[in-house]
Amino acid sequence: MKQSSSSLRTSDLNGMQKHRRITIERLEKYLQNGQFSDVNLHATLVKERNQEAVNLQVFSVPNGRRIPFADAIQGSYQPTQVGESFGPTWSTHWFKVTITIPESYAGQAVVFIFDPSCEALVWSTKGQLLIGITGDKNVDRHVDYRLTKSAKGGEQFELYVEVACNGMFGAGIGGNGSINPPEEDRYYRLTTAEIIVPNTDAFDLLWDMEVLLGMVKELPENTQASCDALYTANQIVNTVFHDDLSSIKKAKEISREFFEKRSHTGYSQHVVTAIGNCHIDTAWLWPYDETKRKAARSWSTQVFRLMENYPEYVFTASQAQQFEWTEQLYPELFERIKEHAKTGNFIPIGVAQTWVEMDCNLPSGEAFCRQFLYGQRYFEEKFGERCTVFWLPDTFGYVLLLLPGLKYFFTQKLSWNNINKFPHTTFMWTGLDGTSVLTHFSPADTYTAQASVRDVVFAVHNNKDKPYSNQSLLVYGNGDGGGGPLIPMIERLRRMQNVEGLPATVKFGSPNTFYEELEQTSRDLVSWKGELYFELHRGTYTSQALTKKYNRQTELLLRDIEILSSLCVATGVSDFKYPKTELDRLWKLVLLNQFHDVLPGSSIEIVYHDALKFYADVVESGTKLRNEALEALIGRQRTSTKGPATVFNPTSWTRPRQVIELDTETANVDVSILQQTSADGRKALVILEEVPAYALKTVQMGYKPSDFVPVTGISTVVKFDTSSGEKTIVENAFIKVVFNQHGRIESLYDKKEGRETIAPQYLANVFKLYEDIPLYWDAWDVEVYHLEKGGEVAPGTLSVAETGPLRAVLKVSQPITKQSKLVQTIIVTATSSMVEFDTWVDWHENRRILKVEFPVDIANDFATYETQFGFIRRPTHYNNSWDMARFEVCGHKFVDYSEHGYGVTLLNDCKYGFAVHGNVIRMSLLRSPKAPDLHCDMGEHRFRYALYPHRGGFNESNVVQAGYEFNVPLLIRSVSSTFSASIETQFFTVDTSNVVLDTIKQAEDAKDKDIVLRLYEAYGGRGRARVKSTLPIKKAFLCNILEDVTEEVKRDDEGALLLEYTPFKVLSIRIAVD
Ligand SMILES: [Zn+2]
């Protein structure tokens, strides 16, 4: 052997026996950065290192503001140095960096290393983004920017670095990755600012060695490939001398020979397609504004560094909102992304169907459609194509309706299930409406894979559908901001492309091509019907109650505005312009807040400051729009003269007779003919006769139906009986309710059906408090054992607040604990079988959950929960682990518990967490997690719910309608009206009770008076519906949610639209009005 220049050389004793385990540990030590890195392979990575060449100045932006580059360079810069610390949390510090390259570096590559222990972004002096930085010591660390491939020597470089005082996972107390609330005054130390000359051969060898060691450890010990890799790697260690860099080339020759010998082509046992990504949560442990910079940091690294150097590299990013931010704030970066989109390296199309990666449990059906509409339209406009893959790697369960046009679906989140292991990797997922989508769960069980041998081997082993498909997706790259794939990941994948002995060939690819290939090569895929329930994060149906309340409220407010505005346009109201721009703006705010860490309640406190600000904007601006459109539709501007009120029914069925409230201040109320006013005198109570679907109707003061019991003394329709001890009895024509002195319901007797609805020996409307300490994810999880520890709160006190012929109002003052209390108003009106509960809570608890329970006299194996444009039936028993795992589930406006012929529904106006177990309907009201928001849900809350006993099982009931009616009241305006009862204008009617006309909006690219209707089948039936309209409809076409027109809709002789429907079908129709 040729003598090395090192004082050491490879031993002649190389023929001695090697001990496998000790040799493996030797290899690990040889590759580790830390102990021994002054003498192992890491000692060879850097040829030169120089801190003196770097001159630093800093400008700390006052008041924690995030400012544009043009403003930043105007700042006043002060000298600074390595070792200084910068803060507090969320503040920004701009560094001006001047680097002088030593003469001796001529001809060599020079790299700038800058580690501020937090996130940063490197800029040129001209304001171009260069690269993102993630400092500190974690796996996602990347702190280097290459200044030149070949230095001249003596030249100068100038740069700016925008340092953001937060880590990749925010600034949680306890360090990186902690979900605790942020530490508000954390300072970050600038640990490194220097230039180096890297030894590229040594880096090359390091990545070879990582793959070799991976093969040794991850392949079965008795395989030739594992043994060969071990032998080769050990030989390399024996060959490299850190003080003789020429030895690297010799070692590289050994690894080259290994990979060359084992390279193979042709049919492989399995194919792993590797897709680079950086999952950027749109807000989470940092605010929305920081996400804008996180996108810039991550994506600049992709386009300016990785794509420049690795032509085969493919990166994918989702969420139209992040692209729009980048377009607005970093236009140059956006242009480069568009260029790389054309070459197929940067794939926004393909994965970003929606506006944000939204939660899928809580948004309404229409909000769900709008996520796709705004997302797809954005990508089509900017990138010329639509996406085919619905990409939701991190969302907490999927109860979505499957929308037309959705071809492929991707997630991996169900691998986090904490009870049952999901049995499939590649399968057909069949939704409520019976349509199917090709689904793949990345079998590496992560969307932040490190692209190691272990990831590839595990993906193949964990793929549960190998009989049906030999394809797996590996989604790699660090998430959340400064991250994304790092160079070593790409280098490792390059080496693993064709290595005989690995269980798969590896290739770089895009989501679209992966799914297309999957579609072509798979066979006999199994089907999974219905909900993809996520067995974790069940607390996210309840945490951050106010956000959830605003979500429901704003979804329905936007619905009202669109209906009223469309009708104004379609009926030719003069001077009325459809508020398209403003509606787009408001919808985007609502959709943004549906991001999968915001609406579910799992973000830090400052995120909710932003979210609530956005909601307040939507409510204020939206209420104004709704009022304007309603007044325009009624046809007269509001005058100072008081007139009788007019109502509008914003639903597609006749609203039943009901008691409404009129404001005595603004409405022209003739007090002399009033039957009742509210206890405070501010509201006049009036009986309103039926209001037809989508119609205006004038309120008639003093109206009394002929079958109404006259208002005389004790024989009021709603009567009180306090004679039976301390019980209070409220009775109307439909029900008789018995309350005990604490406000609990002892009996709810249905007079029409002659049956009791409350379970014998039980009380209903009972508040229960349970200990709510999850295993780790505080705001996210309520765990199965919480029901083991807790019970009924202390008794409340019932009083009578209002009596009269039209309604009775009771009040319950209810202590919860020493520090929390509740006041409930219970309302029974003369016209309904419903008991309404309007609840105010002052809440100051720690890891406790408040629920209300209704034990009912119903028995069925299943209960029905509303979801987007449909319902889900879930078991009421816990026979097996899959049933038991659903001990807390998501529902929307109602949960219904019915048996043959009869049922009881619990309606709500803003709650989403439920359970029906045995005979108990249970609704979660408030939680009190302390992380990541220390003050989550502390303070005052108000919410409404109602118990609604009904004739008929769920399918024969009007429960869906009742859910709407509880949430979408008649719109009342105290203005004069030109409509009289005899000429009610009924804009739309649907003749089938199970088909709901939910949405009426202007067509997106509306010319003239084109509007879009969205209907859905709500009860699981099939047939033909007739949609009639008083509007002069010229033409009507079926379309999809993106409003692509397909076929013309058939009409009957009267011009009514004839629609064929099947269970849960969502129908969109575009109509042109004359
Ligand atoms: Zn996420």
Please provide a written account of the structure:
- The protein is an alpha+beta fold and 1074 residues long.
- The chain has six domains: 72 residues, no CATH class; 153 residues, Galactose-binding domain-like (Jelly Rolls, Sandwich); 267 residues, 7-stranded beta/alpha barrel (Alpha-Beta Barrel); 99 residues, Up-down Bundle (Substrate Binding Domain Of Dnak, Chain:A, Domain 2), CATH 1.20.1270.50; 205 residues, Golgi alpha-mannosidase II, domain 4 (Beta-galactosidase, Chain A, domain 5, Distorted Sandwich); 87 residues, Golgi alpha-mannosidase II (Immunoglobulin-like, Sandwich), CATH 2.60.40.1180.
- It has 17 helices and 57 strands.
- Strands 35-36-37-38-47-44-43-40-41 form a nine-stranded antiparallel β-sheet. Strands 3-2-5-10-7-8 form a six-stranded antiparallel β-sheet. The chain has a six-stranded antiparallel β-sheet with strand order 34-33-39-46-45-42, with no helix packed on it.
- Strand 36 and strand 37 form a beta hairpin.
- Helix 1 packs across helix 4.
- It is elongated and about 110 Å long.
- The structure holds zinc ion (ZN).
- The site of zinc ion has 4 residues, from loops.
- Write out the CATH superfamily name of the largest domain: Glycoside hydrolase 38, N terminal domain
Number of helices: 17
Biggest sheet layout: 9 strands, antiparallel
CATH level 1 name of the largest domain: Alpha Beta
Q: Span from first to last CA? A: 94 Å
Mean pLDDT: 92
CATH architecture of the largest domain: Alpha-Beta Barrel
Q: Give the % helix.
A: 10-25%
Q: Pick out the low-confidence regions.
A: 637-641, 710-717, 979-983
Keywords: Glycosidase, Hydrolase, Metal-binding
Domain Glycoside hydrolase family 38 central: 535-615
Pfam families: Alpha-mann_mid, Ams1-like_1st, Glyco_hydro38C2, Glyco_hydro_38C, Glyco_hydro_38N
EC number: 3.2.1.24
